[in-house]
Amino acid sequence: MALESMSLLRAALVLLMAAQAFPPVSGCNRGFYERMINDFCLAKFKFDMGGLDRGLWCSWPETMEIYEGLTNCTYQVALRMDCFWPNQIVDHFFMHIHRIYFHDCALTGRLLHDPPTSILGPFIAVPVLVTLLMTALVVWRSKRTEGVL
């Protein structure tokens, strides 16, 4: 399997170099770009994730380097093929990756949470107190008519 994936990677690299030497007139060949990231980047990602225990797929510290490699691969292929990055193909590609590899991962730790009360409290209390103080000052000044123009 390792020899098979290495020969696939070599073939993809040769195709990538050929694409660099003979770019299409219109710039980015979207079909070829999609094929390249599937054949080259996805093959390496599958190989790397296959070497990782399935129970660790949801552990960001364990998968971060592999995921960054996949992201960098799609960027490098896009750069060499004169394609914009990110693009719709990459978006669909990563959605597909997440549906296959990360669909069971919990969202805890990645969701936004309210700040602690010790931080949130002053941001609520100060404007309320200033509003009450200014209201009291206006009422007090309106009852005192001397010295007002």
Please identify the structural class as seen in this structure: mainly alpha
How many individual helices?
5
Give a short account of the largest sheet. Answer: none
Radius of gyration: 29 Å
Per DSSP E runs of 2 or more residues, the count of β-strands stands at: 0
Strand content: under 5%
User: Which term fits the overall shape?
Assistant: elongated
Helices and strands, in order, run as HHHHH
Helix content: 55-70%
C-alpha termini separation = 92 Å
Unreliable segments (pLDDT under 50, ≥5 consecutive)?
none
Query: What average pLDDT do the residues reach?
Result: 83
Chain-wise SSE layout:
Blueprint: H1 2-21, H2 30-50, H3 60-80, H4 88-101, H5 117-143
Helix pairs in contact: 1-2, 2-3
Question: Can you characterise this structure?
Answer:
The structure is a single chain. With 149 residues, the chain is mainly alpha-helical. The chain contains 5 helices and no strands. The protein has helices at 2-21, 30-50, 60-80, 88-101, 117-143. Helix 1 runs antiparallel to helix 2 (30-50) and helix 2 runs antiparallel to helix 3 (60-80). The relative contact order is 0.09.
